[in-house]
Amino acid sequence: MTNKKKIHIDYSEFSSIEELNPEDKNLLNIARKNLSNAYAPYSEFKVSAALRLENEEIILGTNQENAAYPSGLCAERVAVFYASANFPKVAFTALAITAQNISDTLKNPVFPCGSCRQVILEYEILQQKPIRFILSGTDGPVIIIDGVKNLLPFSFNSSSLK
Residue 112 and residue 51: Cα distance in Å, rounded? Predict the structure, then answer.
């Protein structure tokens, strides 16, 4: 007999950046301003991430493409790995992610890829507290999600190795 179950994910959607609290609005604006630093000559899809640490430090990351496609790296992992290498004992509190396409506009929020979700999960487990996601395009609605487990409900983590 099949036992069907459902997964429920909580998130908040705002019609624009103007509806955000000042702290989230500032972090998203920083990420948006950083879009021009993305290295995306092949896809022309630029992604920027701004990671706020518990000590209020803001770490920026952009996607870094390569002619050998698998050698590139997503904006989220660039920011997370830099933060971990330079502030190893400081927790992450929020991550703003934004993107723009070839026409310099993107009306829908962007979400981290599966690899980025897995990496961020590792740090949430390490710091034992969720990271707030602030997700947007260059304009339009903004989605806020508390914790990567809402983006990765079935996850692989260190407890799986035991």
Answer: 13
* pLDDT of 155: 84
Q: Count how many domains the chain has.
A: 1
- CA torsion angle for 149, 137, 62, 52 (degrees, to 10)? -50
Q: Give the chain's residues under pLDDT 70.
A: none
Phi, psi angle pair for 161, to nearest 5°: -80, -15
pTM: 0.94
Q: Which domain holds residue 79?
A: 20-154
92-100/46-53 β-pairing: antiparallel
Would residue 2 count as lying in a domain?
no
Task: Quote the pLDDT of residue 104.
Answer: 79
The enclosing domain of 31 has a CATH number of 3.40.140.10
Nearest CA to 136 out of 5, 25, 23, 10 is that of 25
Return the active site residues: 76
H or E stretch including 78? helix 75-86
* Domain contains 4: no
Task: Report how far residue 34's alpha carbon sits from residue 37's, in angstroms, rounded to the nearest whole number.
Answer: 6
pLDDT of amino acid 40:
97
Domain membership of residue 9 (yes or no) is no
